[in-house]
Amino acid sequence: MLAEALLQWYAREARDLPWRRTRDPYAILVSEVMLQQTQVARVVPRYLAWLERWPTAAALAAAPVADVLAAWVGLGYNRRALRLRAACAVVARDGWPAELRSLPGIGPYTAAAVGAFAFGRDELPVDTNVARVLERTGWTPAHTPPELGQAVMELGAVVCRAREAACPVCPVASGCASAGAVVVGPRGRPGDGTRRERFEDSNRWVRGRVVEALAAGADLPAGIELERLELAIEGLVRDGLVERGADGLSLPS
Ligand code: SF4
Fold first, then answer.
1. Active site residue 32
2. Which domain holds residue 77?
3. Which of 49-63, 113-127, 181-195 has the lowest mean pLDDT?
4. Is the pLDDT assigned to residue 40 strictly greater than 70?
5. How many domains, in total, are found in the chain?
6. Is residue 99 pLDDT above 70, yes or no?
7. Which of 113, 135, 219, 224 is the most exposed place for a label (fewest CB within 10 A)?
8. Can you tell me which atom of ligand 1 is nearest the CA of 159?
9. Longest Cα pair distance anywhere in the chain, in angstroms?
10. Helix 203-215 and helix 65-72: axis angle, to 10°?
């Protein structure tokens, strides 16, 4: 009953996103890795440009690391780009494995998402949106064909959101254990785990600026304290994302 209502709603209301129009496992993998750190609206153009440049796993596997890192700028952790490329190298060599988690950097969520949306498996990729919907509704679906998994994800993304549950317009309200009763704590109270540091204050942000500058062949970014730059560069070198040579810093070739 809940599944049926959800599927009908999804058929009517689903956002038209480019990765929902394909069953190509490579394209779906790219979208899932990008979506781990970045909002949907920002991912769409980057995803389309990425697939135009590297349309297959083999094409990405053959791309120079520096090009891949440069194309990833602004999409979050650079290591994800390297793992995506490493996974594609395995796929280009051996094909898609039955056990997707055997690919480098592919965790349980991404494996389930590619398994469901590309290979049509009856698996529910449980991200934070899905976990929240299941917890609030009290629903444990026995089977989750790919379309149903997409519908649960969509519900968590646009209706049953972490800080705002739109119960009056929710398609599954009549079967939901929490309908009209979701209590959301105050935002950003110190110590409640919801407060976030500004992204610009994070080491990840500095790392991103350094990679961006190197990809553009520019000097190190201005306006960032030397100490923060050094910390970021040290981490980038340790992770193999930046190389120190006689001529200074560069992206790996
Ligand atoms: S009725 Fe409310 S709590 Fe239940 S799934 Fe819908 S939005 Fe979430």
1. yes
2. 24-119
3. 181-195
4. yes
5. 3
6. yes
7. 219
8. 7
9. 67
10. 120
What pLDDT, on a 0 to 100 scale, did the predictor assign at position 185?
A: 62
Q: In Å, how far from its chain's centre is CA 154?
A: 15
Q: What amino acid occupies position 46?
A: R
| Pair 251, 211: CB distance under 8 Å | yes
Residue 205: predicted pLDDT: 85
Supply the CATH number for residue 80's domain: 1.10.340.30
Is the separation of the CB atoms in 152 and 117 below 8 Å? no
Q: Given the DSSP bridges, would you call strands 164-165 and 160-161 parallel, antiparallel or unpaired?
A: antiparallel
Query: Position of tokens 């209301």?
Result: 13
Both 11 and 130 in a single domain? yes
Does residue 253 sit within a domain? no
CA of 121 to the centre of ligand 1 (A): 26
Choice among 4, 13, 32, 147 that is catalytic: 32
Mean of the per-residue pLDDT values for the chain? Answer: 89
